[in-house]
Amino acid sequence: MILKKLKVNSGMINETTNCYIVQEEKTKETMVIDPGGEIEKIVEMLNILEAKVKYIYLTHCHGDHIGALKALKEQKGGKILIHRYDAEGLYDNTISLTNYIGIQEIVLEADSRVDDDDTIHIGDLEFEVIHTPGHTAGRKLFIL
Description:
The protein is α/β, with parallel strands linked by helices. The protein is built from 5 helices and 9 strands.
């Protein structure tokens, strides 16, 4: 497994968000987690890894975690995954707070909504969704 952590600027002054790239080495199937900004930096790393983007996973819908979502989907494909309780924020800027933090409104629909105990596969890697609300209603974590 390859795991890359990129610090990306979401458009907020002096604020970065962690974007993770997880790749199964044999198949090069890849999942990008929280593409918050700096699409060029994310795409550059995906190109270096010769990534086949299968999923774009959003831990939650706030603008600093979805800032590069639309461009990433357009450039690299992949299915957008988000917990069902956070999905509404992808088309409601009063939830995503994109206007508040000064980034362009993002209006996209998730390809799939995930729930607690769902399993996500990339190549031979398996991830379990664990619903951990708090910061937002649908915030969740993965366990390898």
